[in-house]
Design brief:
Layout (H helix, E strand, L loop, with lengths): L2 H4 L1 E2 L4 E2 L4 H11 L3 E5 L5 E6 H4 L27 H11 L3 E5 L7 E6 H6 L28 H11 L3 E5 L5 E6 H6 L14 H5 L2 H4 L6 E3 L4 H11 L3 E6 L2 E7 H8 L4
Length: 261
Amino acid sequence: MIVADIMSRDPLYVEKTDFATRARQLIRDNHVRGLPVLDPEGRVIGIVTNQDMLKITSTRSNVTVAGFTVAVPLITEGMDMMDAARLMLQEKTMLLPVVDSPVNRNLRGVVSLLDIFKHLDLSRVPDMPVDAIMSRDVITARPDDPISKVWDKMLEEDITGLPVVNESGKPIGIITRFDILKRGWARLGREDMYRSKDTAKIKVEKLMSTPLYSIKRDAPLRQAVEVMLKHDIGRISVVENDVLVGIVDRYDLVKAVLGEV
């Protein structure tokens, strides 16, 4: 399968002279992982990531996108999908612009890690247990944590979602950036300098998603892929005796398929 088969066409983008606050708003409103950046001639020069843009506060309204643009490989429609995935892992990016050619760099679309994950060949998933690739040092949230605290942690650690556990360590839900953004609670952390009363009162349990899909540590990787595809989720918790012991996300599974674990 090639990039042309899976890419998103007519993507959102910004120009390098646009204000960073505009890029931030596009990312918040559309829940994308990043945006291609174009020069005045319409050529791709890189991307801005949601991680950088969501840290921008409205007080920095005169800062342009140019200072946050990250150079990434530019891929073409004819590239093999898994070669594009390999580039993403090498560059530690979740988004690559698709261009006409490396010379003219006209934007044709974008490919995300999600696009690749949705089209994985299940026969190429290694026959190994989830335990072999899961992340063990999992950052979690408690149901009574304030949303502002969780938002700051997500930006600080570049995490898109945190499992929510009770006092016994049992996972009871998950809180994601999307959960916070779609409910209008994105103006948090450094931007909300005085921690308004409403922000301080909103707890994780009010916005978290349930159920939290879980899998046993000895389950095969293919089962994890199938569960995540079925429920359209980006990560799955790993439990033992009802206690959270790890987490596996799309990035981990794509790495495994590429033999880079």
